[in-house]
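Field reference: sequence -> structure
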Amino acid sequence: MNPSTLRPFPISVVAMGPGSQGDEAPAYLPLPQMQSFAAPRLPDDMAPEVVAAASELLGKLLERLEKQGFTAGVQVDLLAQPPAVREVINQSLGFGEVSAFTTAPRHWRVQETAFAGLWRVLEVADDGRFLIDRLETGSIPPVLGETMRQTAVADLPAPAYPEGCMNAPPLVEELRLQSAAWRPGDAAHVINLTLLPVSDADLDTLYGWLGHREVSILSRGYGNCRITSTRLHNVWWVQYFNSMDTLILNSIEVVAMPEVALAADEDFADSLERLREYLDMLAEPV
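Structure field:
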């Protein structure tokens, strides 16, 4: 299959500035830049039989969701579909509030659709080919959490503390203990650095010790929230930025996946209804 016949998948990356911690703050890992919310729309200039094939595919997905629900992790393989059908799917699903990518060990690209809880998940080869292209349901695709677990470690030795550190030593020990103790189902342990007395040396030490790692997520559901995995199991940077891309809330969360990235259970019923309505529109004669 020639990927050049398809529109580029709508996740781009931008380099982030140093935030609001001063000129000496470390640079951030590039993160996904989310387009404005894009509702699904009727396909443009597509042959009726192509639209019918895409509608049939989405209709079968809807039937499975009505029986199994979103949390069952329903998947639909799109890679074997003809390019024209995939293009209709691209146009039909729109873009939701969350996008993500991973940098290692595999290159995943994730985009929530306009139907909350329905995700487009791709694996991209080094040469740009799509190795996997699928629709997937759930609160968030598991590949993101799996990548965090594969690339983080269970414990990090305490770093060297430079002159000027105030609260970095107790914060490091708190994170080490909380990371080791956290279990699935536990509430998130949140450290709000914005509300703590921390020096530039503290922040530099934490940034250097934890790092910004292989999983990067952008959620626009509650403002512009950027999430990155760290080198320590279940420990994430969760940072909120204003419209000028200035860091306004800087926190660290110990949890499997920060809640701000997750599709909410109450959204699933709404997505089912909206998908039914959209399929009805596709079925209407032009």
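Note: Residues 3-140+264-283 form a domain with the Ribosomal Protein S8; Chain: A, domain 1 fold (CATH 3.30.1370.140).
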